[in-house]
Design brief:
The chain is mainly α. It is built from one helix and no strands. Keywords: Membrane, Transmembrane, Transmembrane helix.
Length: 67
């Protein structure tokens, strides 16, 4: 009887550990996905910022040249 109780406790413990591992893996994957999306958004915004600065420089250059 004691063996059966220990066996069921052991199975419960193993299943709890596997559930916790699965939750940790899922959370890690979600964090990586959101981190990737955030990095892409930051890169695109920096690119637009650079293009904006470039256009401002070109506009200033044209204003200086043809004033």
């Amino acid at each position: 009887m004691l063996d059966l109780i220990l066996f069921t406790l052991n199975l419960m413990f193993l299943s709890i550990i596997s559930i916790i591992k699965t939750i940790i893996i899922v959370i890690t994957i979600i964090i990586f996905i959101f981190h990737g999306i955030f990095a892409i958004i930051v890169i695109i915004s920096k690119l637009f910022f650079m293009i904006n600065i470039l256009f401002v420089y070109i506009k200033e250059f044209i204003d200086i040249e043809y004033a």
